[in-house]
Specification:
With 247 residues, the chain is an alpha/beta fold. It contains eleven helices and eight strands. Strands 1-2-3-4-5-6-7-8 form an eight-stranded parallel beta barrel, surrounded by four helices. α1 links the parallel β1 and β2. α7 packs parallel to α8. The chain is globular, with a radius of gyration of 17 Å.
């Protein structure tokens, strides 16, 4: 069975009530490829506004989740609370949290497991820095990040892996189509050898890193690129063009 194309929009720490309502209205009114699964991740403050305003068929993701179900963890949100609020997805492992907030592989793996155990889908972000790529350590870094999650869970049926080369996020630099496909193929090979043949065939591996309406169609034609995690472009009308990259 073909893997369903998946496009996520990570708004990061951007937006106001008004601007997010405008983005949602544009998505609600747009003709979107019905074969593409669409998920948007607004800032936590706007999750419920987004969920209430979005039309059926578009889901909402948190940008972060904690690894405990409740308790004295100021500023955190649990997977159970997200589920209770009708939020069906969360991101984990985004490089901005790995780098700026010093989140390690093991902590990200525990958060991923907590989200999966609560029934959420997880967009698990992995990727290398420019220095690591220049040292030919891309696959080593990415598989180490994935291995930490594999040690926590063997069920990858609700995991979407987002390969995001750190050097391409928000920089305007994009991994070439060949570079992206090469890493995606290696991730799929790793899934086959570490998790299962079924996980390798069924897990969607999406690309993130300065995806735009200009480069999305070429990327979308690659055999192991199953969609995109879109940053800044998800705040713009062109997000619809990216969702429709295979239409």
């Amino acid at each position: 069975m073909a893997r369903q194309f998946f496009v996520g929009g990570n708004f990061k720490m951007n937006g106001t009530i008004k601007s997010i309502q405008d983005i949602i209205k544009h998505l609600n009114d747009a003709k979107l490829d019905p074969k593409t699964e669409v998920v948007i991740a607004p800032p936590a403050l706007y999750l419920l506004i987004a969920r209430e305003a979005l039309r059926q068929g578009i889901e909402v993701a948190a940008q972060n989740v904690f690894d405990k179900p409740n308790g004295a963890f100021t500023g955190e949100i649990s997977a159970e609370q997200l589920k209770d609020s009708g939020i069906t997805w969360t991101l984990t492992g985004h490089s901005e949290r790995r780098v700026i907030l010093a989140e390690g592989d093991e902590f990200i793996a525990r958060k991923t497991k907590a989200a999966l155990d609560a029934g959420l889908g997880v967009i698990l972000c992995v990727g290398e820095t420019l220095e690591q790529r220049e040292d030919n350590k891309t696959i080593e870094v990415v598989t180490k990040q994935l291995k930490a999650v594999a040690e926590q869970t063997k069920d990858w049926s609700k995991v979407v892996v987002a390969y995001e080369p750190v050097w391409a996020i928000g920089t305007g630099k994009v991994a070439s189509t060949e570079q992206a496909q090469e890493v995606h193929a290696e991730i799929r090979k790793w899934l086959a050898s570490t998790i299962s043949k079924e996980a390798s065939e069924n897990t969607r591996i999406i690309y993130g890193g300065s995806v735009s309406e200009k480069n999305c169609r070429d990327l979308a034609q690659q055999p192991d690129i199953d969609g995109f995690l879109v940053g800044g472009a998800s705040l713009k009308p062109a997000f619809v063009d990216i969702i429709n990259a295979r239409a």
